[in-house]
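Give me the fold.
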Amino acid sequence: MTIMRNTFMLTLILTCSGLFAQFQAGHLDLGLDTIHYLVNYPEGYGEGTADWPLVLFLHGGGESGNDLELVKKNGLPMHIAAGQKFPFITLTPQNKYTRGFWDLTALGHLLDHFEANNRVDLSRIYLTGLSRGGLGAWMLAMQHPNRFAALLPVCGAVPASYDIWIPEDLPIWIHHGADDGLIHPSESINMIENLREKNMKPKPRLTVYEGIGHNAWEPAYADPKVYEWLLAQRR
């Protein structure tokens, strides 16, 4: 009964829209570089002293640059900007390199800084990203094998030859479009086969959307079951 009630409440949160959710802009000075980000706090964060789950979202190549408004274009930030409310903190940095990959070192420093200055449940930090951000999510999970409670890559290229760097106890759910002509679904399919040969527990999951191209983020981040799955994972 408790599980059913929790599932119902989460679905209600995801489907109801009210006032437009507000992002707060911030930046972290790294000395020779600066990383800019948006953050969205859940309702109730300002009350009490409880720690909250954190979702680190990495956008795709089209949202790179120096305009933070771009990161609201797709995926989880788009749903937040449209008014959906989620029961976790969402941290959305921006990759300044329009023709370059995510700076994994900068992301690590950003997480350190954010954790130290916010009420974050360190056992419930989730990592997700789409397209170029999906690749970034894979690589960040490899560099920080004990940091994340779950990994959710969406239509990203996959460094499959380094699958040995993925922790065997990391919950993973991959999403890809069957008709993706930019990053072929075989990237995700081959990776999931490699991971399953490792006898990972829990068993990695793969969802391939028929009739979907390089926009698998649309059905993925619109699915309440994605967030139910994320929030059920703990490190």
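The chain has seven helices and eight strands.
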